[in-house]
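Convert to structure. Protein one:
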Amino acid sequence: MPASASLLGIAGLLAVVTALAAASGALLARGSTAVPAAAWGVVAAGAFGLEASLRCAGWLTGPSAWAAARLVVVALATCPAMSLLGAKRPQHGVWQLIVLALGVTLAMPAASASLVRPGSQPDVHLLERWFILVLFLVGWLNFAATRHGAAATLVAAGQVLLARLFLPGATAEVEQPVSDCIAAGLAAGGAVLALVQSLPLRRRPAGRLSGPAARIDAAFVAIRETFGAAWALRIAERFDAIAKHRGWPCRLSFRGLQGAAGDAGANWATEAERAFRALARRFVNADWLSRHGAGGRDVDRVREGG
């Protein structure tokens, strides 16, 4: 077997590893609106695995066929980050249609090259090239400051390397199985690392908080690690506005609940927990909250809004 075919086989196997890690992530995220993003990750990794397998089998011969297939893979690779940007109930379901439309739009030059101009390279506009790069950067920045920062960096590096042909300033190139194998390894390493870091989410040191304040803190940290900085900061902003209006002596920062260590059992804490859970339920359900340290019999008796 030629060396290039062997490298493509390795890349295909690494894509399977990435897809399995993403599928496992979807299982861990069950009960949250982050599941579709993980599902898009499975689809993107599966598409790259299929591309590598077809090339290894002698299909997709020629730079034009390879470039068209790669553009489809790149378009799908932008979907997980885009999916998370709309991961809030009740629009999270309809948002997936927007994500699908984005993927189709980004892949259109591949269809045009294959159907209208057979044998030619996909003509990707400069604006689309920048948009692809920005979406990869957004996905990375969303998790760069979280515990998944290293994993996000590996995945983003792999995505950029896979998409090298369609980024700003890139020119046509021949197939490079070595680069593809490295890119697949980076993405697989990041996906597996993120999965391992989520088994389970790290708990806060015992004794820092207790009661409702501890549950708020645990759930917020879990949401931050699951959805990234964008939605975590938005939840913190809304919670702090309510806390300020009602005079609660606590605030949510990116690190978690602050200002409640010595007053965690006060009457305001129950109201604060109820308000936080109402905000969190736009992203997760009660079972998810219970699995991430925000459950309890006293909480389960609280009648929560959507």
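Protein two, convert as well:
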Amino acid sequence: MPSTSRLSRLGVAALGISLATTLAACGSSDPTAAGGSSEGGGGGGETVIVGSFAFPESEILGEIYAQALEADGVDVETRFNIGPRQQTIPALQDGSINLIPEYNGNLLAYYDTEYTERTTEDVDAALVDAVAADDLEILDSAEAEDKDAYVVTRATADAAGLTSIGDLAGFTPFTLGASPQMTELGYGIPGLESFYGVDVGDVTFLPIEDFGGPDTVKALVDDTVQVADIFTTSPAIRSEDLVVLEDPENMISSQNVIPLIATSAVTDQIRETLNSISAELTTDDLIALRDRVEGDEKASASTAATDWLEDKGLL
């Protein structure tokens, strides 16, 4: 379990104010010097501060990183629910945090909005140099991904023989429910045509504003739409027995969970601990973790993280 050295949840609000002040003083996202790699635990014996984005899945992952590191003797603090990359990257640069769970595709897009890499291997390779410019380092990516997916109900998949996005070419006409941006994104309606030969003239688009949330799920289950854009770690995929269509052409870039750490904080021990987590973490694990925290159980991120680490033999 987390030790008393960890920052109390009661201090999160105060930490947020302190971090916001630090970030405001930073004034830009330009790289700042972070020093060289250390051989000692936690950057020469210093505390490793684990951050997260401001959504439940990221906090769960942050807890997994923090608890595993602490179990291996690293002094750890947590500063969760920070905000988007425009805040987290400067926080990594100025030392407000040292480590954060990231998503490789979106992280690469932060550095290169026109990137063309799509597979996990290619995205990770491109990231190495991209983040090094900011004195940051990526470690091993997990199999676990949280990304857009074309999803259908089990009944629709069975009746029409749908297993991959390409099968939609023979399924038209159908209605697609997704965020408004899907009419323009490369992996949206344009991609259906260019990657998979879907006649988009036979696709009716229904914009739904909740980005794969409850409204999108309801529209799919009610057959208001027959295909929907839902993120791969949505608990609804399990609870509603939905089918994620395969993407053999990698139209949708990889979004693997990956540790992003300040170079000054990296040690062999920390690298080994975090890589062992990535070696075990799957998309199904993320779905189950989110379901525990966001579903009826309402478990804390800390409890869900502890249970997962114990189940995997990592504590």
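Residues 56-71 form the longest helix (16 residues). The chain has a mean pLDDT of 88.
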